[in-house]
Amino acid sequence: MTNQTWFNPDYINWLNDNPNVMYEAGASLFVYTLPGKRQQYYESPSFQEIKNKVTKEITAVVDALGFYQDSAEVELLSTLKDYENALLVLGLVFNIIMILFIIISILLIFSLLMNSVEQKSFENGIMRLVGLSKYEYVAMIVTQAVMFVIPSIVAGYLVSIPLLWYGLIKLLN
After folding, report:
1. What would the pLDDT profile of 24-73 be if each residue is shown by its tens digit?
2. Cβ count near 77 (within 10 Å)
3. What are the start-end ranges of the H helices in 28-133?
4. How far apart are CA 72 and CA 70, in angstroms?
5. Coil vs helix vs strand at 133
6. Smaller CB count within 10 Å for the chain: N or C?
7. Residue 95 half-sphere exposure toward CB, CA atoms < 13 A
8. Alpha-carbon gap, residue 119 to 69, rounded angstroms
9. What number of helices (H) and strands (E) belong to the chain?
10. Where does residue 111 rank: exposed (0-12), middle (13-18), buried (19+ CB within 10 A)?
């Protein structure tokens, strides 16, 4: 036991009131289940915020019960700390993959537009000859780009929603 415990007046009074107690006797483990909906303590993506919530709750209980612990350790927090670094690396990998997909999609759209402009050079020349201005020509190319992008975005959302729903169900079960 620490000096803080030995010199605590409440502890000394308790020992005086209970002369048959062995001084070294005590609990080596305290098990506590967080009250209410326990997932609310672990919902934050920040490990530090989770640690603060859980430690605050545990400290309040330990103080209310009158324990004078040498140290308080929450095993779940230790396990979460181990996973925090793994999740950080995994998040970075997913971000890199997402950036690569974005770059590839930009290059594909650019390639499609360049092919379209090159293949329609005769038609574009006729349109310019008839009176199409440079700004209208640029607007036509931008409209064509939007026509490539919007169906891709809609298809991406339509495919991702069922996949995310399936992943959420698997995660919660």
Report:
1. 556 666 677 777 777 787 788 778 888 888 888 877 777 776 666 656 66
2. 16
3. 47-65, 75-119, 121-130
4. 7
5. coil
6. C
7. 6
8. 79
9. 6, 0
10. exposed
- For 35, the 3-state DSSP assignment is coil
- Residue 107 to residues 42, 96, 110: CA-CA distances in angstroms? 41, 17, 5
- What is the token pair recorded at 160? 């991702």
pLDDT tens digit sequence for 95-152: 999 999 999 988 988 898 888 888 888 888 888 888 888 898 889 888 988 888 899 8
Amino acid at 150: I
CA torsion sign for 12, 17, 23, 27 is negative
**Residue 114: closest CA among 78, 141, 138, 140:** 141
Task: Give me the residue label for tokens 């379209």.
Answer: 116
Structure-block tokens of residue 123? 């038609």
* Domain ranges within the chain, ordered by starting residue: 3-73, 120-172
* C-alpha gyration radius of the chain: 33
- Whole-angstrom Cα distance, residue 150 to residue 138? 18
Contact 55, 63 (CB under 8 A): no
User: How many C-alpha atoms does 161 have within 13 Å on its Cβ side?
Assistant: 5
